[in-house]
Amino acid sequence: MFVPLNPLLHSELRLAIMSLLISAEEADFMDMMEQTKATPGNLSVQIEKLRKVGYLEVSKSFKAKRPRTTCKITQKGIDAFEEYVKALKSYL
To answer: How many CA atoms within 13 Å lie on the side-chain side of 91?
Structure first.
């Protein structure tokens, strides 16, 4: 029997965000936008969805007088990602 896939992580962009952060642990918004080819609005909406469930921590700061948003994966996010991958493997 197949294990249900986490619908929050099953979105292509949210999965891409989590995949980037699982290996890098932390990334800034501009880097994630470049890596995922997402628009700023779409990326920020998906980051907020992941933050609300506790998968990401988001911090805002300034670098050279420019705003900087950084995302970091939480332990809850790591666990959810690992469970998602395990569930996906059950389909193969």
So the answer is: 7
| CB atoms inside a 10 Å sphere around CB 59 | 11
Q: Which two tokens stand for residue 59?
A: 């911090």
Over 80: is that where the pLDDT of 34 sits? yes
Q: How far apart, in whole angstroms, are the C-alpha atoms of residue 75 and residue 1?
A: 28
**Angle at Cα 70 formed by Cα 7 and Cα 9, nearest 5°?**
10
Look at phi and psi of residue 64 and say left if phi exceeds 0, alpha if psi is from -120 to 50, else beta.
left
Q: How far is CA 13 from CA 62, 64, 67, 90, in A?
A: 26, 29, 23, 22
In 3D, which of 51, 52, 53, 43 has the Cα closest to residue 72?
51
Q: What is the pTM of this model?
A: 0.90
